[in-house]
Amino acid sequence: MTIREEITEIVVPNYEDEIVKPMAGKNHARIQSRLIAELLRYEDKFDVLPELDLELPGRARPDLCIYPNLSYDWWKEEHKVTQAPIVTIEILSYSQGIEDLLSKARDIYFTANVQSAWFVVPGLNIIHITTPNGQTATFQQNEKLVDPVTGIEVELREVFR
Fold it and tell me: Which of 24, 140, 147, 149 is most buried, judged by most C-beta within 10 A?
């Protein structure tokens, strides 16, 4: 195999393996980047990773994953991550239904031991958190979100400004 064939094999994903997600828009990207900025205050304890392909009991690509600090091998890339994050964050797109995201949390994330799932609803400026044991909380635009599992706090006025 030539080097070009090897690189193509690595870089070009198999179409059937791709996870189909709604196209992210400007509002989605803005919220995602602001959440990352807020969450980076916790980088001494957690890694915040966007758009990670998870290979759990099902396949998913949350908008953000939060892990306890991970170790990295910069010589080897991991394209399909099998370790479940402790928190997943999904930003609702206009073409998605909240029920789709809730069933993804129940059927994929929580069966893989994700401990907290956040659902961001841009049109309402809220973030809803749910845990595998059924604990829920909803935080509005001017409130401070507190994750019951990690203790992470996020000022939502910074996310939705």
Answer: 147
